[in-house]
Amino acid sequence: MARDGQLVGWYVNLEEPWRESPFGFDTTDHLLDVWIDPDRSWRWKDEDELAEAVEIGLFTPAKADAIRAEGERAIERIQAWSTPFDEGWETWRPNPDWPLPQLPNDWDRR
Description:
The protein is of the alpha+beta class. Helix content is 26%, strand content 22%.
């Protein structure tokens, strides 16, 4: 959202499923992402980062192909304008009466 509350777009962050950890949740970012403009056009984001990750051995070429395939499944949803894109999230606003969450003092030692 922009500061004035207008939708600037959607962002699909490709990553491993979240796993519980002693500190909350862990995941591994897959570097490649999809950006969707309000007019529903889309583009890949950070293709160069995924290519570099393969080049240095962070991901195998097969894993990079699987990451891109997962992104393509998201793109199919974008093009069909199906869930979650068709659910009205662009007009959702948090209740202004909600307090900001507070972290416990020992959040980093649990």
